[in-house]
Amino acid sequence: MFDFESCLKIGKGEYKRMMEPLIIKMGKLQREAKTKKIPVLIILEGLDASGKGAVMNELLMALDPRGYKVYSNNKDTEEELLRPFFWKFWKNLPGEGEIAVFDRSWYFSVIKNLNDMNKKEYKRRCQEIMDTETLLRNGKTSIIKFFLFISKEEQKKRFKKLDKNPSTSWRVTKEDWESNKNYDEILEQYEKLLDNTGNEKGVWNIVCSEDIDSAKVQIFQRTVAFLEKSIEQSGQDTLEMIPLKEKSFSLDSVNLVKSISRREYKKKLKKYKEKLMELEHEIYEKRIPVVLAYEGWDAAGKGGNIKRTVDRLDPRGYDVIPIAAPNDIEKKHHYMWRFWKDFPKGGHITIFDRTWYGRVLVERVEGFCKEEEWHRAYHEINSIESQWSDDGAVILKFWLHISKDEQLRRFKGREKTSYKNWKITEEDWRNREKWDLYKDAVEDMITMTSTENSEWHVIPGNSKRYARLKVMEIIIEELEKALKKREK
User: Fold this and answer.
1) Are the beta carbons of 228 and 26 closer than 8 angstroms?
2) What are phi and psi of 99, to 5 degrees?
3) In what order do the strands lie in the sheet with 318-322?
4) How many Cα atoms sit within 13 Å of 56 on the Cβ side?
5) What's the CA gap between 475 and 273, in Å, rounded?
6) pTM of the model
7) CA distance 409 to 432
8) SS (H, E, C) the chain
9) Are 306 and 294 spatial neighbours (Cβ–Cβ below 8 Å)?
10) Inter-residue contact 219 to 411 (CB < 8 Å)
11) Distance between CA 202 and CA 465 in Å, rounded?
12) End-to-end CA distance of the chain, in Å?
């Protein structure tokens, strides 16, 4: 993989002659990619002192600074350490027509944490990387990956040169000298990682950077060819249609008659609120992130349910994220981007009032995405939720179910009540006309995305009191389970 015989050297005159047209071409392709609304992700990985900074600087000088952003993955911040593995990368992904350059990415994060991983965890990370890159490509992000390598002797030479100069000596750390000492081991680790995460669409560009000018030319040449191909194929890619499972769940099986007396409700409500207040403190101490995902029919009682759940909680420990139609910035990104950026840090709770499942509900029913896209979304969502739960998060998903007659009664009640009529819109009535289409979509959603670590809880909601208590019961039970698991 790391073939030193492939290392090339070019003179300054040859370098200038080759680079000038490439720089002009790069700027032109950036503008075309913007016009085509293509998100471009350039990943620069490599050995220490292999010249990533020099390559990146040359690359950025060829681009319009209004159309790119750079993310450097070095030492994790406290904020990043309290989030799932991919959180810091997702929030820095490019939108339509943008270029993001990752100076080290998820690959470096795996390498630097190898000593803390067993074989199972390492294998999981490799699979998550491949799943994430496939998901992004299916979402129209063009990804090109470079790995720069140099010999042990050249690395040592560059460290010494940096160390001798007072203005650059700060860049050489004890860890750098240690990496040179363990050069063969680190190179072998990278070779294994790159081999385990490369595939036909995620091929690695391995570049020898013994001669940095030669490396720059190679990277420019390959990036230009990559962008030309991405622009040429824009809008032509087709997704394979992934078949749905046969439905294993029917909303008709839900017993909507369940109810509870007002007296019993008040008694339990007080008890559950106090218990949730205690648990909020405990999950904070254990740094467990919690996601409560609410979906349901219009007027099913999501807002009232959330209100009772958080009533006694410390507002500094939770956020409620109401999800509406995506804004202009959100539309430019992958549909999961806006949910990743709001993921809670360890010890906090995020409550989503409607969720990423809009992809397989409203976007499916209303035709806002292609059939192939929402078919694929089930697998994508399962993959991401698996990442969250494997990284220690508690994911609780609730579908609040009411009958069509009960919905009509609540709609009419809202229209007649002055302080509630703002809740009812023409869109609500229009959605009601598509009840059967939504019902079919909900049943597919629950069948396809109810997994061992992230199952759906279908809550009978004709009785608001019963639904509120049932949700709180489930939250309490699952948080207690998570705390016991953390103690083991």
Assistant:
1) no
2) -120, 130
3) 318-322, 349-353, 290-296, 394-401, 456-460
4) 25
5) 11
6) 0.93
7) 12
8) CCCHHHCCCCCHHHHHHHHHHHHHHHHHHHHHHHHCCCCEEEEEEECCCCCHHHHHHHHHHCCCHHHEEEEECCCCCHHHHCCCCCHHHHCCCCCCCCEEEEECCHHHHHHHCHHHCCHHHHHHHHHHHHHHHHHHHHCCCEEEEEEEECCHHHHHHHHHHHHHCCCCHHHCCHHHHHHHHCHHHHHHHHHHHHHHCCCCCCCEEEEECCCHHHHHHHHHHHHHHHHHHHHHHCCCCCCCCCCCCCCCCCHHHCCCCCCCCHHHHHHHHHHHHHHHHHHHHHHHHHCCCEEEEEEECCCCCHHHHHHHHHCCCCHHHEEEEECCCCCHHHHCCCCCHHHHCCCCCCCCEEEEECCHHHHHCHHHHCCCCCHHHHHHHHHHHHHHHHHHHHCCCEEEEEEEECCHHHHHHHHHHHHHCCCCHHHCCHHHHHHHCCHHHHHHHHHHHHHHHCECCECEEEEECCCHHHHHHHHHHHHHHHHHHHHHHHHC
9) yes
10) no
11) 51
12) 42
Which tokens go with 367?
A: 């035709």
Q: Supply the pLDDT for residue 8.
A: 86
Q: Amino acid identity, residue 197?
A: T
- Residue pair 41/137 in contact (Cβ under 8 Å)? The answer is no
For residues 129 and 133, give the distance between their C-alpha atoms in angstroms, rounded to a whole number. 6
Note the pLDDT tens digit of each residue in 320-331: 999 999 999 999
Domains of the chain: 4-233 (3.40.50.300), 252-487 (3.40.50.300)
Hunting for tokens 């992000």 — which residue is that?
A: 141
Backbone angles phi, psi at 145, to 5 degrees: -120, 130
The 10s digit of each residue's pLDDT in 242-288 is 999 999 999 999 999 999 999 999 999 999 999 999 999 999 999 99
- The answer to whether 268 and 466 have CB atoms below 8 angstroms apart is no
* 36 φ, ψ (degrees, to nearest 5): -80, -5
Cross-strand pairs, 293: 352, 397
Spell out, as residue ranges, where the chain has pLDDT lower than 50: none
Separation between Cα atoms, residue 331 and residue 370, nearest integer Å:
15
Give the model's pLDDT for residue 326.
95
Exposed (0-12), middle (13-18) or buried (19+): which is 6, by Cβ within 10 Å?
exposed
- Cβ(468)–Cβ(485) below 8 Å: no
CB 230 within 8 A of CB 430: no
